[in-house]
Amino acid sequence: MTLKNIRIGTRDSRLALWQAEQVQQLLTAQGFPSELVPVKSEGDLDLVTPLYAMGVEGVFTKTLDAHLLSNRIDIAVHSMKDVPVQMAQGIVSAAVLQRASYKDILVVKDPEVLHSFTEPHIIATGSVRRRAQWLNRYPHHRIDELRGNVQTRLQKLADNDWSGAIFAAAGLERIGIRPGTAVDLDWMLPAPAQGAIMVVCRAGEQVLLEACAPMNDTATAACVHAERDFLSALMGGCATPISALATYNGDKLVFKGSVLSAEGKEKIEIEEVFNAAEAAAAGRLAAEKIIAAGADRIIAKLNRKG
């Protein structure tokens, strides 16, 4: 194929469009013309049903997958944490951009809340991972369901009697709306690949793969693939409270992972350091270690409940 005009598929939220525009700018810098093709996903249309009740896997990506496979777009841009570890047949990764912040943040209405967590509070999130980690740390708090794009969720926080709500730092920071009342949750492990942007295309589209290759950040790609390998080996998805973070310290890959029960009462976590020769297998090796520590028992319980 010739690259006359690359059609970039994206969800139509403000954040998704921002991410797609970054990819568009990188393509423009290489001399490739392109256009954005906004698409509304199932996850964007239904803002009431909790994500865990929607099947979750691919809820934000499968509409764009269909557009790719039917040749209505040439590439798609995703928040990588939304992409199923088993991607749709015929679709491959073309690039992983340099990662932004991987952290979760708490946005509060009143900064005084930050000094009173020993008291009962209502915290909002639509993530089972965030819910489980929060209740593990603050079992006397209540968690309410929160769905929608970042602007919608901030408005819901303002309109409800919640003490705070949990967001991904990258989502708010990328579009410049991180409130002054936000604090980093340094103790909360992120979702695998949180903060990373992934570009995908149809398998075999060599010209597109070559066009996207320069925007791939190899260090980010290695870290997030280790995190996703960990998730895959544990056979978990967005409906399972599985967290993972891989970072480089020199030539060593430091891997942290955890598995929690739905209400946070049980928690198993690991931290391992892998040398350069082991880095490619770090996610799988970490999964084996956390399974040996009993994580498979927690996951089996979650699957039976699901």
Describe this protein's structure.
- One of its GO terms (molecular function) is hydroxymethylbilane synthase activity.
- The protein is an alpha/beta fold and 306 residues long.
- It folds into 3 domains: 6-97 and 196-216, 3-Layer(aba) Sandwich (D-Maltodextrin-Binding Protein, domain 2), CATH 3.40.190.10; 104-184, D-Maltodextrin-Binding Protein, domain 2, CATH 3.40.190.10; 227-305, 2-Layer Sandwich (Double Stranded RNA Binding Domain), CATH 3.30.160.40.
- The chain is 32% helix and 24% strand.
- It has 10 helices and 13 strands.
- The protein has helices spanning 14-29, 42-45, 62-69, 128-137, 150-159, 169-174, 206-212, 218-233, 282-292, 295-305, and strands at 6-11, 34-39, 75-79, 91-96, 104-108, 122-124, 142-144, 164-168, 182-184, 197-202, 242-249, 252-260, 267-274.
- It is globular and about 60 Å long.
Question: How big a fraction of the residues is strand?
Answer: 15-25%
Average pLDDT figure: 92
Helix content: 25-40%
Q: In one word, what is the shape?
A: globular
* CATH 4th-level superfamily of the largest domain: Periplasmic binding protein-like II
Give the terminus-to-terminus CA distance: 44 Å
Catalytic activity: 4 porphobilinogen + H2O = hydroxymethylbilane + 4 NH4(+)
EC number: 2.5.1.61
Pfam families: Porphobil_deam, Porphobil_deamC
Keywords: Porphyrin biosynthesis, Transferase
